[in-house]
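Reopening this ticket.

The earlier resolution said the output was attached, but the attachment link was broken on my side. Pasting everything inline this time so it's all in one place.
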Amino acid sequence: MTETIDFKNPKYYNNRELSWLDFNERVLDEARDKNNPLLERVKFLGITQSNLDEWVMVRVASLAKLVEVKWDGRDSSGRSAEEQLRDVNAKAHKMLIRQYSTLNRSLLPALSQVGVRLLKVEDLTAEQYQFIKGYFHDELYPVLTPMADDSSRPFPFINNDSLNLSLRLHKNDDQDGKTLYATLQVPSIFSRVVKLPGGDNDFILIEDIIKEFVDQLFINYTIKEVSVFRVIRDMDLDVAEEDTSDLLKKVQQQLKLREHGHVIRLEVDSTISNKLRKRLVKELQTAEDSVYEVNGPLDLTFMSKLASQVVGHDDLKYRPFKPYQPEELNDEHNIFDAIQKHDWLMQHPYDKFDSVVEFIRQASVDSEVLAIKMTLYRVSGDSPIIKYLGRAAQNGKQVTVLVEVKARFDEKNNVHWARQLEKMGCHVIYGLVGLKTHSKLSLVVRREENGIRRYVHMGTGNYNDVTAHFYTDLGLLTCNTDIGLDVTNIFNMLSGYSRPPYFHQLHISPHGIRDFIDSQLSEASKYAKEDKPVHVQMKMNSLSDQDMIAKLYEASHAGVKIDLIVRGICCLKTGIKDVSENISVHSIVGRFLEHSRIYMFNFDGDQQVYLSSADLMTRNLNRRVEQLFPVLQPDLARRVVDIYNTMWNDNVKMRMLDKDGVYKRVDRRGREPLDCQEFFAAQATKMTKNQQSDFGSKSGIQFQPMMSPQNQPDPFNDEDGSDNQ
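Inline output:
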């Protein structure tokens, strides 16, 4: 009798938070990789810090809450909240050591060799010392506010993510030498990285300037110790929506409360005295294993700012490339005529996001356009799309915009834009009760000779013209009738009470995407059991939903070959006998942040290609409005397959998850190097140059099928593809 396998056995799952730390380690590896340009390595180190800060504010904060309320549940890997908190703190401490080893032993010495110096006060020339002295007196001194800490003046509130000095001092005429304490916040209105005279790329940190002259804020007192510290607080937004009549107001209230969340992480100088350390731990009510002693400057996000201020070293940055935009989708052509001819697939950032902006711009001024409907999850601080939506409303078009005011860390920005859109005459929906709307949809309704036609843009990424330059995403422009009807029904669901019994082409979360992928995997299992060829290929940011992983295990057990590209969290384990032997997992971390979601199923030659806004995480499948949509035009479907296969064959930035849970680079011996992101960038540059030279096709077909990367020269070694932008 065949033994039944429990595909939800905890030993088959990685812990979500530990897997996230593994991802951030891969980002840190990019900072350590000497094959990357030096200033890009510096930025990667800064990214590891910003990643870590956000993760602590939300995920570690959530674990701390579960421990506090004595939650007795366990995660898919079988860990209690207390065990998870212990394990992630232990692993995060090890990461901190690697971060500062990378800074002190690798990056700072390498920067110094090329004339970029981050100096300490004792390293300054006389001219530079006079400069920081003047800078302190003229700029900093009037702004700084020392805060005494004694019986009449309690320990001050310390803002989240702020840099502070903790001081131990005594009064000069006090014969007993009683120890006094004070704090001083480093003002965030000034650049933390201060450029010095006397060298093109000499810098100093603002806290070092303040420390040098801090005694001038405490006249007739002697400073015994000065130490820098920083806190990360619980910044998770808790909106109880069930009884909330005004969601926008509730979000605004929670934004104010969030600033006073519990301290989840305390960072201090490694040179801090035991006495001062104990005082901070006590006053901030910090758990001992949440205290991190740092061997270097706190808060490494400054490294990105440092890299951006360096002058004269373009050779230490990534080589620029020229993103491609088909002529038919630019501002000199009617974009609706182009979409009527055929669908258009865009791969950002290699294809310009300008085409998406142009779609909304032309809709805002086209006299035949009756209505524009759009979902916005994250937009830039100066969004052209917001401007064109407002213009459309002012031009008399019906404009409906769902602005997700609960988008984490973009709540304030989204509340602002929601108000602005209302002022410009747009009808604004502030998200849905109990759900986040994460779908990326635009609908333009246009009156034409043959009646009403619906034009649709669907994407895997946000309508953000800034992040579109460094997030990889896929988008589709179409006027397919069935898709247009589906998108219309989605907007009716979002704005009203419509509940259509089915969709023609799209699959919608909550639940719809889960049901569809479950069904596809069940079908794949049938094919495998009948010895028919079947292949499943997926790409996503994160894979953590236990039910979905169990379904993948079930398909693998049936003999289905499954290839997964998962950039970040992956709770699935590979190489488990009879469970995941047929599953391979790759992760790509490189120049651009891999953000696109692709789901492909090949049933004995019947290749089905889908794109989605959703990762395979419980929140995306159960608690968000998401869309999964097909790529129906055959040449575009082939292009998506080619894009996926090129990424799968990457042997430079790709790491493979082995059966021991370790991400390893592939052995490249005897193989031509393939960095998929650089390959796509070079291809875009070539297509743009061909277009500018009038050698490009005038047929309006956007995609020229690419040769297999292994069978053509490395584009960046080609003279035409290597020119700077």
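Reporter confirms the inline version is readable. The longest strand covers residues 221-233. The chain has three domains: 10-316, 327-504, 508-679.
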